[in-house]
Amino acid sequence: MLNSLSGRFLILTTVFVMIAEILIFVPSVARFREDYLLDRLERAQIASLALLADDMIDRDLEEELLLNAGVFNVVLRRDEARQLVLSSPMPGVVSATYDLRETTAPGLIRDAMMVLFTREPQLIRVIGNPLRDAGLLIEITMDTAELRGAMVDYGLRILMLSLVISVITAVFLFLAVRRLLVKPIKSVVHHMLSYAQAPEDARRIIKPTSSVRELREAEQALQSLETQLTQALRQKERLAQLGGAVARVSHDLRNILTSAQLFTDRIEASEDPQVKRMAPKLVNSITRAVSLCETTLAFGKAEEPAPVMTLFNMAQLVDDVLDSERLAIGDSDISLSEDVPGSLMVRGDPEQLYRVLSNLVRNARQAILGTGKEGEIRVAARAEDTAWVIEVADTGPGLPPKAREHLFQPFQGGVRKGGSGLGLAIVAELVRGHGGTLKLARSDADGSLFEVRLPMGDLEH
C-alpha cells in the first residue's frame, strides 16, 4: 500500500493538508486570544457601570462583580483622570502588560504562542479602548490560567477538525488519483507485459485510449515504439530465415565447387591449346566461388567469441602474416614490407588479430593484382599514449566512392569484382571485440591506408 503511487499520494495529501491547517491554526489561536481578552475588557466595563451608578456598594457585591468579569481590578481613565473602579487583593506581581490598542498580527501570534506554551499561571495587565467611547482607556488585571485553558481547548478542537478535513480530503483525492492516474497507468503496464509475451504479434500493440493528455502522449510514444519493434523483429526473422537458407545453399555449393576444383587439375593437364588457355580462367572462377561460399558461411555463424587477451609480440605476428602472403603472391610483382619494433608487445587475441591483418593484407594484394602492375604492401605498428596503432598501406588504385560508402557492411562493401564484402565486415567485428576501432585513413590514386587502434587500458566503470 505505502509503496504504491496511490498510497504515497494519500500520505502526502494528508501531510500537506495538515500543514495547511497548522498554518491556519496559529493565527486562529491568536485571534481567539485577542477575542478572549476583549471579552474580559467588556465584562469589566459592564461591571464598572454598577459603581458608576452607585458610588457606594458593599464589598461582597464588588467581589461578585470582579468574579463575574474574571479579573482582579478594573481601572478607567475618564477625562484624563485615572480611577481604580473595582479592586480585590492581588495574588502576585504583574509579569506582563498587553496593550490591545496597538497590536500587529505578528505580535498577536507571538503573544498567543507564549501563553500557550507557558504552563505556569501568570498575572497580566491588559489595556484596551472602552466600548462606545465610554472613556479614554480601560485596564484590567487577570490570571492567564483560565485563558490558557480556553486556548488549549479551542486549539484541540481546531486540530481535530483539521484532521477530519485532512482525512476526508485525502480519501477523495486518493479515489480520484486511482481513477484518473493509477488505473490508466496500470492499463499501460498491462499492455506492456502483454506485448512482451509476444512482441511479434501486432494485435498486442497498445491503442491510445487515455483522456489525460500526458498519458495519451505516453501511450502514443509507446505505440510508435512497439510498432517499430514489431516491424524490426519481423524483418530480423525474415533475415534469419534467409541467412539460414543462404548458409545451407552455400554449404552444398561449396562441396560441389570443391569437387569441381579437383576436376580442374586434370583439365590443366590437357594438351589441347584451347583447353590450356581457358583452364586458368575456369580455375579462378571456381576459386572465387569457393571463397565466397566460405566467407558467407563464416559470417552466417554465431557472433565471434570474445577475444582471449594475452600479451604477445606484434613483430612476430606480422612476420607470420607476411610469410603466408608471400606464398600466395608467388611470382607477382608485389613487395611486402614491415615497420614494427621488435620489442613491441600488444595485449589482445593473437589468433583474431592474425585474421584481421591477414584479411587486410589479402585485400591489398588483390587490389594491386587487379591493376596488373607492381605494387607494395606495408604493415606498420607503434605504441601511443593510450592505444596501439596498426597500419596496413598499399599502393593500389584506391577504393571507389561506392565501396567507401558501405565499406564495413556485409554484402555491400565489396571492392573487387565477385567479392562479397564480408572480409572487412568480419575484420571490423573482430576489432570491435577488442574495444578498438577500424577506419579507412586514406584512399586515393596513390593507394589505401587502413588504421586499427587497440586501447591499452580497460573500460572505466
From TrEMBL:
CDD domains: HATPase
Keywords tagged on the record: ATP-binding, Coiled coil, Kinase, Membrane, Nucleotide-binding, Phosphoprotein, Transferase, Transmembrane, Transmembrane helix, Two-component regulatory system
Xref: Gene3D superfamilies: 1.10.287.130, Histidine kinase-like ATPase, C-terminal domain
Keyword Glycoprotein on entry: no
EC assignment: 2.7.13.3
PROSITE patterns with a match to the protein in the record: HIS_KIN
Domain Histidine kinase: 248-458
InterPro entries attached to this UniProt entry: HATPase_C_sf, HATPase_dom, His_kinase_dom, HisK_dim/P_dom, HisK_dim/P_sf, Sig_transdc_His_kin-like_C
Catalytic activity, reaction form: ATP + protein L-histidine = ADP + protein N-phospho-L-histidine
Coiled-coil spans in chain: 215-242
Protein name as it appears in the record: histidine kinase
GO function terms (MF aspect): ATP binding; phosphorelay sensor kinase activity
Transmembrane regions listed in the UniProt entry: 9-30, 154-177
Pfam family, one: HATPase_c
